[in-house]
Amino acid sequence: MHLMNTGRPTEIGGHKEKCLHLNPYNAARIVYEVIKTYMIVNTPEQADVRLAQKYDPDYKKSGILLDMSYNWRTKDMSKVPAIFIQREDAAYKTPTMGQNRTMIKNNETPGRFAMCTMPVTVTCVAAEPLAVVENLAEYVKQPLLYFRDEIQQNFGIRRFQLTTVSKPKIVAEGKNNFSVDLTVNVTFDEGWAVT
Question: CB-based contacts of 192: which residues, under 8 Å, 6+ apart?
Answer without folding.
Answer: 3, 4, 5, 6, 7, 111, 112, 113
